[in-house]
Amino acid sequence: DDAAIQGVKVGMMGPLAGVGDPVFWFTVRPILGALGASLALGGSIVGPILFFVAWNIIRMAFEWYTQEFGYKVGSSIAKDLSGGLMGKITEGASILGMFIIGALVQRWVSISFTPIVSQIPQAEGAYIDWSKLSSGSEGIKEALTQYNSIGATALDATKVTTLQQNLDQLIPGLAAVLLTLLCCKLLKKKVSPIVIILALFAVGIIGRLLGFM
Predict the structure, then answer these.
(1) Cα dist from 33 to 54, 57, 107, 135, 186, whole Å
(2) Which of 75, 89, 73 is nearest to 10 (CA)?
(3) What is the pLDDT of residues 10-60, one digit of tens each?
(4) Strands (DSSP E) found in the chain
(5) Considering the entire predicted model, what is its pTM?
(6) pLDDT tens digits, residue range 195-212?
(7) Do residues 179 and 111 lie in contact, with contact meaning Cβ atoms separated by under 8 Å?
(8) What is the CA 142 to chain-centroid distance, rounded?
(9) For the residues of 125-155, what is the DSSP string, one character each?
(10) Rounded to whole angstroms, how far apart are CA atoms 165 and 117?
């Protein structure tokens, strides 16, 4: 009857909100927003369209499924939820969120360590000799031709290798992943996100001034 339906709804409102809000507003929506923003930064109109369409499809599909599910099981839905259903949903959403965020780390987090590791003189013909190029557009054409040829693989007579290039050869994106994990650890220790953001600003500015980033 109506009273039973209302009682079940009111009784489950609090527990379900404690799970539904993190899953939808703090997992699904930020993930779709990050994907859409990533495409939009590349100049693609698909980004905002993807966010709008995917979010509404997920939202409407979830509303329809849960309405049908609740109508079929009735008041016994409380038994299903107490059996660990919501825990499985939360765990699955967390796994999906971490997977997507992990894939976006390489695109969104950018770190470059500029200290020079080595400077190796290039052999004759392995670099572009700018003093021998023609002037004007003809010189630009010659430079592009030499750069694309087999022998001209460098722009300068000395090949400079930075710390970041060595790290990229070892594990591309290693510094970005470590920085992300550090921020996650600080968040778990209840460090304010504002403090973390200000600290990142400070490290970036200091690193730029001292010449190691």
Answers:
(1) 10, 14, 14, 49, 24
(2) 75
(3) 777 776 776 677 777 777 888 888 888 888 888 888 888 988 999 899 889
(4) 116-121, 158-162
(5) 0.47
(6) 888 988 898 888 888 877
(7) yes
(8) 40
(9) TSB--GGGSPSTHHHHHHHHHHHHSSS--BS
(10) 9
